[in-house]
Amino acid sequence: MSAALAPAARGLPALALTFNALAWGVSWWPLRYLEQQGLHALWSTAMVFACAALLIACVQPQAVRQVLRSPALWGVMLAAGATNASFSWAVTIGDVVRVVLLFYLTPLWTVVLARWLLNEPLSPASLVRVALSVGGAAMVLWPEASSSSGSWPVPRSLADALGVAGGFFFALNNVLLRREAARDDASRVLAMFLGGALMAGGCGVLLSGLSLVAWPAPQGGWIFGVLGLVLMFLLSNLALQYGTSHLPANIAAMIMMSEVLFAALSTTWWTSSVLQPQVLWGGSLILLAGVLAWWSPENPRPKTALS
């Protein structure tokens, strides 16, 4: 089935992408629940992605061989793993909306990485997206009048830094996926889930050994939280693969940007947080850069298992 579906036939793919955005937009809640049950975000991410990778390997055993024989996919594995470890940790310790917005600085990093790794030229449109992303990030990161953290728009917390890092690695993951577009979906998806397990688990071991994060001490209903996240992420990935293969890239992009809306609504509802005007304005510029990037024919969106 081609991407040129009639408008009436786009309902199910659009619904699938909306589910994907919803899953990632509210993923902060089960991650925080698991942290309360004695599992730091790094440990819960490692468990969830290890379970998902094991299921994929059982269903598509040939994907395991392809990943092991393809050093190029190891880069995808590392980039995707760093993305998930950064994002999951950030949304458990920081302001979820700020983290998601900083994560969506992807157009900025994509322009830089595509130029470096794929030798793509810098077009006027790409420079406009960079300017919008930088301006939006500056507004989001600009200290409030009452803040004593200085006047420079830089990450002011570990959560901010992790959000920026997650967006960078997400862009790197997408650029590497574009370079490996000829490979089948199963091997690429398996590489990304394996990366989430290995990177989060490796960071967990290192930081726990240094007494910077707690070793796993699961209690209560932690197993149900882990299994629920496994199911949610697997279903959201299937929904993403289906939606992006049946809708034009510009329509898919605008639907996927609703992740920010779901994150904002869920945190406002469950935590009674209030969005600051500068975050709203800066976020609008970042999202506009994202929409323009997805709309542009020069940057076709690869399939990805991430948000």
Q: What is the structure about, briefly put?
A:
The protein is mostly helical and 307 residues long.
Fold topology:
Layout: H1 11-25, H2 28-36, H3 41-59, H4 61-69, H5 71-93, H6 96-103, H7 106-117, H8 124-141, H9 158-179, H10 185-209, H11 222-246, H12 249-256, H13 258-271, H14 277-295
Euclidean distance between termini CA atoms: 23 Å
The pLDDT mean sits at: 81
Number of helices: 14
Element-level helix/strand string:
HHHHHHHHHHHHHH
- The helicity comes to over 70%
Taking the sheet with the most strands, its summary is: none
What is the number of beta strands? 0
Strand content: under 5%
> Radius of gyration over alpha carbons?
19 Å
> Based on CA inertia axes, which overall geometry fits?
globular
**What class do helices, strands and sheet pairing give?**
mainly alpha
Poorly predicted runs are: 299-307
Description:
This protein has 307 residues and is an all-alpha fold. The chain is 74% helix and 0% strand. The chain contains 14 helices and no strands. The protein has helices spanning 11-25, 28-36, 41-59, 61-69, 71-93, 96-103, 106-117, 124-141, 158-179, 185-209, 222-246, 249-256, 258-271, 277-295. Helix 5 packs antiparallel against helix 6. It is globular, with a radius of gyration of 19 Å. Residues 299-307 have low confidence and may be disordered.
From the structure above, extract its key features.
307 residues; mainly alpha; globular
